[in-house]
Amino acid sequence: MKPKFLLTVFTAFIVVCTSNAQDFRLGKVSLQELKEKVHPKDSSAVAAVLFEKAENKLVYNQENGFEIELVVRARIKIYKKGGYDLANKTLRYYLVNNSREKVSFSEVATYNLVDGKIEKTKLKSDGEFDEVINKYWGQKKIVMPNVKEGSVIEYEYVLHSPNIGNPRDWYFQSDIPVNYSEYINSIPEYFVYNTNLKGFISPKVTVEKHNKSLRIDSKVRVSEAGFSATRTNFSSEDIPYTETRTTYLVENMPAIKEESFVNNIRNYTTSLEQELSMTQFPNSMPKMYSTNWDAVVKTIYDYEDFGLELNKTGYFEEDLNQILKGITSVEEKIAVIFTFVKTKVKWNGYHGYSCEEGVRKAYKTGVGNVADINLMLTAMLRYSELNANPVLLSTRSNGISFFPNRTAFNYVISAVETDKGLILMDATEKYSVPNVLPLRDLNWSGRLIRKNGSSEDVDLMPKVNSKEFANVALDVDNHGVINGKVKLYHANHEALRFRQNHIVTNKDAYLESLENKNNNIEINDYVRENELDLAKPIIENYTFKDTKTAEIINNKIYLSPLIFFSLRENPFKQEVREYPVDFGYPIQEKYSITLKIPEGYEVESLPKAMTVDGGENIGMYKFVIGNNNGVIQIVSTSDIYSPIVTPEYYQVLKDFFQKSIEKQNEKIVLKKI
Amino acid sequence: MNIKNVIIALVAVFSCTVCAQKSEYPIAAIAEELKDNANAVVRLEKTDINIASQRSMNVKTYRAITVLNQKGLSAVNGYENYDKTTTVKSIEAVVYDVFGNEIKRIKRKDFKDQSAAGEGTLFSDNRVLFLDYTPVNYPFTIVYQSEVATSNTAFIPKWYPVSEFYVSVEKSIFNISYPNNLGFKKKEINFSNFTIQKTTDTATQLSYSASNIPALKSEPYASQSLLFPRVMLGLEIFNLEGIDGNATSWIEFGKWWNSKILEGKNELSEETKNKMIALVGNEKDPIAKAKLIYNYVQQKVRYVSIQEGIGGWMPMSAKDVDRLGYGDCKALSNYTKALLEAVGVQSFYTKVYGDRYKIDIVSDFVSTQGNHIILAIPNGNNYTFLECTSQDDPFGYQANFTDDRDVLIIKPEGGEIVRTKNYEDNGNCQNSIGSYVLTEEGDLTGNIKMMSSGAQYGHKTNVEKLQPVEKEEHYKEYWDHINNLKIEKSSFSNDKEKIQFTENVQISAKNYGSVLNGKMMFVVNVYNLNSNSVKRVRNRKSPFEIQRGYLDTDEVNVALPKGYKIEFLPDNFELKGKFGECKTEVVKKEDGSLVYKRSLLVNKGVYSSAEYEDYRLFMEQISRNDNAKIILTKI
């Protein structure tokens, strides 16, 4: 049977943009490209994308209706051996039945310069591999033949995907320079997409409208909304429609570089995200997907594995009535229910705002994904008459999305609105407490959804300082050996981090690493308090002997006042900074130290007290010191006010750390009386 | 329902009642000493291997493990690999709670099925079925059972009664049965410190049993291979991916490998052969010719790992590598060998364990061993070994990956065990010459030339490939004791002929000398501080090993700031012992400047656990002396 529904596209020639002499057709590699030894703008580049052109279209397919067809053509120059990885290209495709994607490579070849002539080596089937990774994903890989320093490689690939809701993100920028990257999006008027451009460099965007038509030759089955074949329709006509063609073009993109303390480098990489927000087919009502946050949230709420799951209560009622007996205060209810969910259901490691097992099954088996657990938590909080709602968010690894779309989110937590403000909870993390979320959740803002479908932004970044503070008593003898006693507190996120990292660590191994980290001191009498009493800070108590910190030079004892607690090197080493510094949460570190000097010695000099004010965007460092009859008292307090510091404050931040470090490492000098 | 089904149903019901009745492996039954340092306890591990014939082996595993905390989860090892010649006949697990009550059954369909291609492997047809279980509570016990059938008898799984650190063992049993005509053999390793019983040892059966082994702690400078007991097993008559084999000696093994795995893979087109002949020109010396060919290979090919079927063992043909320009270690070694043949240079395919840690091919146990291939070229009475997967290594360079270990050279006339090149302690050098100047404010500017050779060459050359930002980061990490460090300039020269890497670096640092109350204090040793302190270890149990020694020498001119006089200079320092020797001195010159000289030699060696604390103190003294300070007073 012939396809009865034909898509006639009126002449749509690709206009080759020839602002320079380069020929952007595959196969037209120039001598000049092959001869180039280094990248003209970045001589350290191991490779560069000479051009990359993507055409994304919605095409009609008799069986499946509209599908995405993405055609990508690329030419890549390899300058150095370090760039050989670029000669192996991998493309993933989705495998699950009705949204199975198809991928094919063509026009794959390597070009080399041999005795001044261009030599082309085509990829043969033995260089192409198809692999099933797991039940969701497969991948095709190509291994280019004959790649050397100086080679130019080319390929084309076509991806057919029925998942029209979310076209693949397009990255204009990469970890190698990209000379030219173009993305052309051709969308019939029936579809409206939301688009979001990320990154620091904006592509040039041009929009054109074209008149096209769909020709229906004979009787066909068409659906009411869309072309997905449901009812019989007798017609033979041309349906005119408008196609919007949007071209995004970026030239001369520098390579993107990783930096320390970056939340997620993809947030800053120039890229394009799209999501279907509305469909409107002829003679039918428009269907909204995501036009604004409220619409996005409504769509998610209406998913069976979200809203429906949230409304189930029967499975826990009996148990919950039991444990809530006699409990009336809001705080207590929250604490009891939160703990109950954490002990009852364990996280299987999977993200998502849709339930995987379903709350009922998760409750029964004791295992669930993020949504299973936190929707269950929300349901229980609601059941106990608290004003609880789910909060959708995007984890740090998922990046930040600034425009309304469903895929912006990959996670859900729970919030209770109380008269003392909002309390956020994530029951997937066994050591977390209300309002201390695991680091993965701390990513700008989330979206709270109420029962009536209204929603609002929720700031996820912690307002309360996380704390690490220590009371330390030191005793120095006349050989420079320091004996000390420490009580060290870790509170809030610092406590969470400590519990995550160290509770199950073998005690000896922990002490050995603590000794090693702290200038090889010798630790004794180690006791940990509140290990599992999550509401309280973790406290470490120990005594130690330190033979390395104090130095005797020329009969004088030199030691730095914070001994091994001092920060020894600046964590910020870069000269310039491109992206915001992300600490995760505000933090205060405070050390109160008393130091007894040995018999027969007196203080020759002490570091001076000092305050470093980094301003409200950074923090404050205070160093106070005093001498009282042979006992030196020191208080060192460092506050980082904001979890995020933008690049314009980088230099201030670096200096702030530098000054504190220098102060902490200045010496106390003791001399013989 | 027919009779057969009824029986199956009855059996199922029966077996269910049996397990429902008795509680399995309650945690209370674990002896206290087995909980010390343990993240998991092996309650009972039973391995039954049955070799029915040269082409058929069946491995049954029963493993009951109590997992005490999340770090013990990896000890479950609930996975099986499979491919064209290996099938997983059954796989399942049952989870029990603290009291030994059954809480979950995990069937085959609940195991995840995934490609087993690891990071760095481009393609592999090896797949893995693995258990993905989220524990509801710790501790819990899991009983894992599987049965795997394979036609590969060239590898019989080793028996490891202890498989991991921090895991104790209640009981581990091993049984293997085999026909008496396949030349079954075994080798016991590291048995001495463990109670292991050999319960059966006949012409067709071998059994061991081990019980009550406390958990071992992982300790620095110690390796599992020196510590863990194990039994190697093998057949003289075996099958490898469909190819029958027969070898009682390395000579026979080498002949077999050469004829079945390598033969016919070395053909090249006449065109390529002629190209090679032209390339070497009039050169007569085989080593000089090999250098030219090796250089050609390094420019032409790249390393790509592809593991398909017998391709996991058999190299891709030289012709294909010539056409495609890529291959794995087998393909690239075989290709280089073919190119060398074309110019009349003999070389041999060589099996080796490629690893930073030195692992020998076990020379008294003829079997398929090794994880990597290199090429051996006869050079006088010795061999020069080529790493054909590297596009950068100097000709013959082996340090840190294939050096100082037993390898198997495959010659047409048979295999031969040979020791690879040992990099001597005092040849693993870093010789530095430099200077620095201090201003009255304590600001430092300086430059240093560091020349590295031997094993240290291999540690350094990577810096050449770094991006500018990474390069800066590298040096800031390397000299992380210098605050406010700025890297003003860096340049390199890589002499692959002499195998010497030279770094020239200019640095500056504000406030390097701390000025306080008219005095300036600074650490005289700027460029080469031994700060990597050796960890204190409580009750060390394992011997320790320094695998490669090294020698660092430094000579640095120090120009003191104007307006200061010397109040204190560190004493000269000398420390000698079995671990090595260190010497530093500060010499005053006539022009008022100083010269700082330092040499540190660390010896390689294997030492007892008792000597560890001495070693720690030896290094601590050196690091303390490296921090020695000069004090200046304002005039």
UniProtKB/TrEMBL annotation, chain A:
Stretch forming the signal peptide: 1-21
Keywords: Signal
Superkingdom classification of source: Bacteria
Cited InterPro entries: DUF3857
Pfam families the record matches: DUF3857
Domain DUF3857: from-to ranges: 72-217
Protein name per its UniProtKB record: Transglutaminase
Lineage of source species: Bacteria, Pseudomonadati, Bacteroidota, Flavobacteriia, Flavobacteriales
Automatic annotation (TrEMBL), chain B:
Source taxon at top rank: Bacteria
PROSITE patterns reported in the protein's UniProt record: PROKAR_LIPOPROTEIN (PS51257)
Signal peptide extent: 1-20
Keywords annotated in UniProt: Signal
Limits of the DUF3857 domain: 56-216
Name listed for the protein in its UniProt record: Transglutaminase-like superfamily protein
Species of provenance: Flavobacterium glycines
